[in-house]
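Dear Dr. V.,

Thank you for agreeing to look over these. As mentioned in my earlier message, I'm a first-year student in the group and I'm still getting used to reading structure tokens, so any feedback on how I've presented them would be very welcome. I ran two proteins. I've put each sequence directly above its structure. The first is here:
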Amino acid sequence: MAQAVLSLKKRRFLMIRFQFRSRVIAAAIATALAACSDGGLSDSTIAPPPDSASSTVKVTAAQMNDSDMSNILYQVKPGSTIILPAGKFKFDGPLTMNTDGITITGQGNGSDPSKDTILSFAGASSKNGFQAFNVAGITLKNFAVEDAVGNGVFVSASSNVTMDGLRAEWTNDPVQTSQMAYGLYPVNCKGVIVKNSKIVGTRDAGVYVGQSENIRVQNNEAYLNVAGVEIENSDNAIVENNNVHDNTGGILVFSLPGTSYVIKKGANTKVRNNHIHSNNTPVAENATGYVTAVPPGTAVMVLAADNTEILNNIIDDHKTTSILAVSFQATGIAYNDPKYEPYVHSVYAHDNTISKSGYAPGGAFADPKQLKPIVDGLFAQLKSFSQPEQLAYAIWDGIVDTDPAMGSGTASDGSGGVLKPGFAICVKGNTLDTPFFDGLLSYESMDLNLLGLLSGSASAPNFPFPARMNCTLSLPAIPDMPVF
């Protein structure tokens, strides 16, 4: 009896084993047929299934090519983590993600293929490096994108976006040859973190966050871009603890015209605790668009945006000025957007440490047909009193909103008048390295009265101690972090 029971158990075991093997064989045949329909079967063309316990896909070096990576990104399950190997891998087109909740992480963002993950798009036939569209949650970590025409890392119409420890770089003479418009480029997103990354050599902005809300840009290094960091037509942004240097302009806060823009008026940006230095690089040869209006040698520029606070930054060595606040009229560029509000409101720059600024102005300030005669006259006056020949460390174009709720601009173009409390351009309480004579001379701020100067109704800038800028503001609170 016992022997019969054992024999029965053995038969059942063999049957279970056979059924298991049959399922494995059937699955293998199905996989092979699917691969054959794509033109062949090899180990590198089959995307590895996520580990059932950790939902992790470990990509091999052999799979780091256009075809295999496209398959992996297409097949991956929501919530998975994709781990990229070390090495330098060449791609001919963008890597595209459309799945929610994905984390993609490499081994490092440096330039050593033996330990870092480098995605090269040099000579690629189509634009962009990595791109993602319409995803709810994406984290990109610890890899580099080099020489992507278009954008290095582009995420659009998404939420809960984190870029952490990335590098986007145009590696060969970027000022003269760069075709990378933006390095790290989240646009039309809600909840954005860009941190611990390096962005080098774009022909527009290194970090560009546009038409987005709830943003934090922190602990990044950006250099040899036209703009190091740009916040454009966005709400609730904190830009902090970044090292921004050797760009044309350091940090830009812009609100631009665009009939299709989701956010018409950018507002609520805090620029704090950054080291912004030596942003004197000429505009890139291939630069186009509004960014070309940035005067080389500008640390922080606010264009037509609202509620911008600039505080506790170390700002050093800028040929034109350290802080520039302007309305869109100052660019001289025409626009056709009836809902666009071109005036800058509510800028408060305080408690910054500023040095070596305004000594060789560029852009419109160096153009004989624009502001150079004004600059030359000012410098001559300062020289006659044996004072440093330089522009003020903060400059406002002096254009005042004609809406009576916000200002009292006395002409249709906004010249004259004052901005009402709460909407003013205030610069106060900064530490400077220039002489200060109470009531006589301060290089802290200058009310340019641009339209008055250009029309001939004003003979000189209101410098020093401009009454319209001698104020303080209480600005709306900004969430410390995006709400994920």
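The second protein is here, in the same arrangement:
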Amino acid sequence: MALVIMTVVLVAIMVTAALLVRSARSDAMAAQQRADEARDALREALENQQKALVERGKSAARSSRSTFDGHVAENAFPYAAEHSYHPKDIIHVGGNIDFLVFDGLFEVRQGIRKPEDLTVVLADVKYGASALTREQRAVIAAMNGGRTRGEYWRAREKDGQLAYRQRSEAAAPRPERFAVDGGRQLPAAGFKEAPDLTQIAPTTDVPD
């Protein structure tokens, strides 16, 4: 009886050991598979990073070259043969618009053209496939639509600080002092019961 019990216990131990070995082997294989997958993912991530770095370098080189070419085209614009502007009439502004052109100002200085022949132009230079921005289109549309004005400001020092006052270039019209008819002064005799303008009442205040 004791021998039978020992045999049963031994068999149970062997079966349990076999199951544990099989479970450990399965766990080891799963762990190895996860490790292989992680290694493959890491290798793919490194390759993608390397490709991204290479592409970024190429993109930066293209962008740098495009920016350089754009600067060259912009700086050479005042001397281009395609437009009729005098180089001294072109002023670089930058920002939303590259150039402010006073077309004809050089010839006005030389007395060749009349001041009223002067034209103010806003010009922008784009290189290659570059396009105007929304703001640049709005500025050019405002200029071409006549939504422009010129301003003249006078700066003075007031209480230790600069103060600005907008002034007008055109002189304000002077008020007429006499009523006119056909450009001639109307005589006082032309009015009924016209007062004698040569006599002033003693109580009347004479304006300064």
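From my reading of the second output: The beta strands are 90-92, 99-103, 119-123, 152-158, 161-167, 180-181, 184-185. The chain has a mean pLDDT of 79. Does that match how you would interpret it?

Kind regards,
E.
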